[in-house]
Amino acid sequence: MPVSYAVIGASRGIGLEYVRQLAARADAVVFAVVRNKQRSTHLLATIANLNNVHVVEGDVVDYESMKRAAEEVASLNDGKLDYLIHNAAKTDHKTVFLGFYDYPSMDALDVDLMDAFKVNTLGVIHSVTPFVPLLRAGPTKKIVVIGTGGGDPKSVLAVGIKNMLAYCATKAAAVMVATKWALELKDEGFVVVTLTPGLVDTSGTTGDAAAQENMEKAADDFKSVGSRVVLETPESSVRQQLQVIDGLKLEDNGRFLAHNGPSFV
Ligand SMILES: NC(=O)c1ccc[n+]([C@@H]2O[C@H](COP(=O)([O-])OP(=O)(O)OC[C@H]3O[C@@H](n4cnc5c(N)ncnc54)[C@H](OP(=O)(O)O)[C@@H]3O)[C@@H](O)[C@H]2O)c1
């Protein structure tokens, strides 16, 4: 039986790279969950000659669509799934770097924070819930929620990240959601972790001209406080993330892990 992976938010960036590297494994079947198949042009180009990747539509803000996605995966994979990798996040470079005083009004701040909460925090619940029965039916029972050092108060203080208000606050809440799933599913032998990918230049697939400049500035900010964080390629980050995922053990349940070692910064 092949090892099955669902990557939620697989159209581009880190999620796309997960699909690419997992699909290269001889024994893998990959379910690439995307909001819109036709618009996932980078994904479609990447998997054009692959027969072990299935593209499934699902939007993590829309629970009904995630239920349909899980039903489709179940019908294609004998009701089972080994690994759920929840990668989707609101990363829009027009808003993701905003801090308290960067919004034109409190209403605008409210809207952005609520939108980010729906994708980054509620999205984890919408995506994990319908896949739990499939994971239960398989032997592996691993859930990986992609997090960020920006969701860890100690790292945010160490690097002095004043901006990225909505992103950091809602990704921090997502760590708590993953922690709750870890406790909820512990007695059934699940391992649920949050895993940070490091600082990863995904500008090649964002379609946003400001993205690369923003990522390089972020790398400079880390460097200026003596951090060991460097800007990485999706290939390098995901290769290291998969080493962590391949080595997950029961005692890792509930942990907040980094792709390259024990601390984020
Ligand atoms: N890049 C970094 O340096 C970095 C650092 C720390 C953590 N992370 C984390 O790594 C993960 C991936 O980030 P990335 O840099 O690869 O971002 P990205 O290139 O902007 O990709 C984001 C992905 O999320 C998907 N997505 C957004 N909203 C969605 C929704 N409502 N439903 C389903 N999918 C949705 C996007 O799909 P569409 O194409 O449909 O928009 C896209 O596939 C995120 O969880 C992020 O927080 C990244």
Automatic annotation (TrEMBL):
* A GO term, aspect molecular function: oxidoreductase activity, acting on the CH-OH group of donors, NAD or NADP as acceptor
What are the UniProt keywords, alphabetically?
Answer: NADP
CDD domains the record matches: carb_red_sniffer_like_SDR_c
Q: Name one Pfam family in it.
A: adh_short
Q: Which domain of life is it from?
A: Eukaryota
UniProt-recorded name of the protein: NAD-P-binding protein
Q: Which organism is it from?
A: Trametes pubescens (White-rot fungus)
